[in-house]
Design a protein that fits this description.
Number of helices: 14
Radius of gyration: 21 Å
Low-confidence stretches: none
Distance between the termini: 6 Å
Largest sheet: 4 strands, mixed
Structural class: alpha/beta
Strand order of the largest sheet: 22-23-1-24
Number of strands: 24
Bound molecules: ligand EPZ
Mean pLDDT: 96
Oligomer: single chain
Strand content: 25-35%
Helix content: 25-40%
């Protein structure tokens, strides 16, 4: 089991290149299932989750080649419609093959993703929506088995709660359905733009992306796509938090500040200087941070995927902060690990009360999930002494070469077995 080791106390300075967005790349990879024409993706991040998704597509019979930050996917030879548990259990995003498989082949058998550390992660909204589009389905021994013997047809879909992959699954399914689909209470996360671009290149007519009402009508899926993935706004926010905790002056090359407007306002309010600069975002911080109240919310609110990271910042802020986690029911596991480093955090249901302390102290901690591991890296950068983070594989799911990027700006961070 690999550990990430950090010797805290180094200010960061220099340039970090931001990678392509994981949560944009995965749905675009899934969209290739809709066609037998080869598709190309650029600026794809080198991550465990991307490798895992490529493995899942290959298990269906697709030809996938991942090279330096690009992917070629040919689904003309897909012959299986079953996504098996041993692949799906590692990555909830595997559910993104359900919509395209059902739309193209009229059937799909996908293992229920199972819960993950941050919550139960149900897929009832996905299933209900596909049934409204003409599919029939049943849960049987851990798999969702869906059939659309007469093909899918357009429908008006209302999501009770905003669901990012639910919106993406229906966008893909609707691209091969007969007639028009309108999605109400659709997700507005920017990562959906890449998927919509790919589907439009394939011949789907889509309006309303970025709003809560999206309409989809297929024209003729006569093309593949060549799509470039947007910069990762969650990786960007993670490094902004890192500078807030360890202090310093860093340029995030390739970052797009427009993808993070609300979080950037919040980072500025606690004392991190964030501004647009040529080629990206410049971030600097020299003073003790201020406390703040945060509610996580669907886009454009404060992203749940940046909650663990800013909790590390607030552990060292002046005063008492609180965070209300509105999206997932169990996304505070990093709090217990931060407390082992000396943080003063009380959890009360979906609320965390963080009383800032003067110092965090390096010790052995354990990563429980992807963003929790990023939170521990941030805390380790600011801590006095050496922090050892167990289960380093979590961080590799969503961050490309994070130690290399941080070492390049002065952090003392390495990996040991
Ligand atoms: C996406 O997950 C992201 N993953 C998550 O990022 C992100 O945290 C989440 O959206 C929220 O922004 C990808 O895009 C691959 P949801 P997703 O469906 O789509 C409930 C990361 O760290 N819900 O928007 O699975 C659900 O329980 C990951 O990169 C249902 O009840 O999340 C949650 O409370 C973690 N039934 C809320 O909706 C459903 O059928 C939002 O979930 C679907 C969702």
């Amino acid at each position: 089991m690999q550990k990430i080791v950090i010797e805290g106390g180094c200010e960061l300075s220099g340039v970090i290149k931001i990678s392509g967005a994981k949560n944009a790349a995965l749905p675009v990879m899934a969209a290739a299932i809709l066609t037998d024409i080869p598709c190309h993706i650029d600026n794809i991040p080198e991550l465990r989750d991307v490798d895992g998704f490529a493995e899942l597509l290959s298990s269906l019979g697709a030809k996938v080649s991942l090279k330096e930050h690009s992917a070629d996917i040919d689904c003309s030879s897909v012959k299986s419609v079953t996504a098996y548990y041993d692949l799906v259990k590692k990555m909830r995003a595997s559910i993104l093959v359900l919509g395209p498989l059902l739309a193209r082949f009229g059937s799909a058998k996908v293992s229920l993703p199972g819960g993950c550390a941050i919550g139960v992660r149900p897929i009832n909204f996905h299933i209900d929506a596909l049934k409204k589009m003409g599919a029939v389905g049943a849960l049987e021994n851990g798999y969702i088995n869906m059939l659309a013997p007469y093909g899918l047809h357009g429908a008006n879909i209302f999501f009770p709660k905003v669901t990012v992959t639910g919106t993406e699954n229906i966008l893909m399914a609707a691209s091969l359905a007969k007639g028009k689909t309108v999605i109400y209470n659709a997700a507005k996360e920017p990562e959906i733009i890449n998927l919509a671009n790919a589907l439009k290149q394939m011949g789907t007519h889509i309006t309303g992306i970025g709003s809560s009402e999206i309409s989809v009508e297929r024209e003729s899926l006569s093309n593949g796509f060549n799509e470039t993935i947007m910069p990762d706004r969650i990786e960007t926010g993670t490094f902004i938090s890192a500078v807030g905790a360890s202090k310093g002056d860093v340029v995030l090359e390739g970052a797009d500040i427009n993808l993070l407007s609300y979080p950037v306002d919040l980072y500025r309010s606690i004392g991190i200087n964030v501004k647009k600069c040529a080629g990206g975002i410049s971030v600097s911080c020299s003073k003790k941070l201020k406390s703040v109240s945060i509610l996580t919310a669907a886009y454009p609110g404060f992203p749940t995927d940046l909650q663990a990271q800013i909790m590390a910042d607030l552990s060292l802020a002046d005063g008492v902060s609180n965070i209300i986690e509105n999206i997932f029911e169990n996304r505070f596991m990093h709090a217990a690990e931060l407390s082992r480093m000396g943080a003063d955090i009380k959890i009360d249901g979906n609320q965390a009360i963080i009383r800032g302390v003067d110092y965090l102290y390096g010790t052995n901690v354990m990563a429980t999930d992807l963003r929790a591991s990023a939170s521990l890296v941030i805390a380790g950068l600011a801590a006095v002494g050496v922090t050892k983070i167990d289960r380093a594989y979590h961080i590799d799911r969503g961050y490309e070469k994070i130690e290399k990027k941080l070492r390049a700006v002065g952090a003392k961070i390495w990996r040991e077995n």
